[in-house]
Amino acid sequence: MSAHAGHGAHASVEAAQLNEVAPGVYSYVQPDGTWFINNMGFIAGSSAVVSIDTTSTERRNKAYLDAIASVTSYPVKVVVNTHHHADHTHGNYQFTDATIISHARCRDVMVAAGIPDYSAVFPGVEWGDLQFRAPDVTFEGSMVLHLDDRRIELSDLGFVAHTDGDIVAWLPDCRVLFCGDLIFHGGTPFALFGSVSGTIQAMDVIESFGADVIVPGHGPHFGGDDIARVLDEQRSYLRFVQEAAAEGITAGRTPLEQAQATDLGPHGRYTDPERLAGNLHVAYREAQSTDYEFPGVPQAIMDMVAYNGGALPRCVA
Fold it and tell me: What is the DSSP-derived secondary structure letter of residue 13?
């Protein structure tokens, strides 16, 4: 599938990459990591499986279930939702034998939203016969899952970052960290439902684990020297957004006007650059030098479309 596929095209589910990143621990990376094309992962035990997240469409989730079945015949007994966004939770209902676990705030937002209608912004996506399923168990702070002799440590951040309710899953025995959409590897970070400053702070939390491998919510998993590089790239972009917001506030520009006046420079190589317009709304709100009133997510999304010259965000899910 071309990286420049249009709205009428779909990224192939066969392009998904299943990798054993540690013994019995797998990442499931869906190229190209743009809108609604997320990553999942799972841990295979001697009698059960734990999945980290689900995915956006019925056919994509079926492909993920097939990938799990290619490794183990045991059922998925637990699904962890790292946050509330639909590309990580739409598939919950297909895990019929599983208990779904999330942060308490994640469940609250999911229940309030149900299955949103995205057809106006993302037309042509074959969602399938989606059925809403909320998490069964929620927590705040931390909890530990035990799979055979392996600990899967779930913890929140204690602050708003990508969303209000992000959690990470840490496997201390093999030093693998699943961090959801706190990281977009190769993509533009997106803070419209959370906090720019909080997402910067989240990079420090992620770094503190000292992971050997990190599985992000979008883009390839990574390890070794790439960890410092990717975290610094994410920080650099988010600080760039803060600096652009300060410039726009001083100049009296709206977030959209500032986005249009901003040269992305090296950050222009990331996918989904229109997120700048949405991120600036959040950075304006967080700036101490303004009494800016956030107009809401729909207006911010309209600004992203305007930033694209009227073109809808590219979604090949």
Answer: G
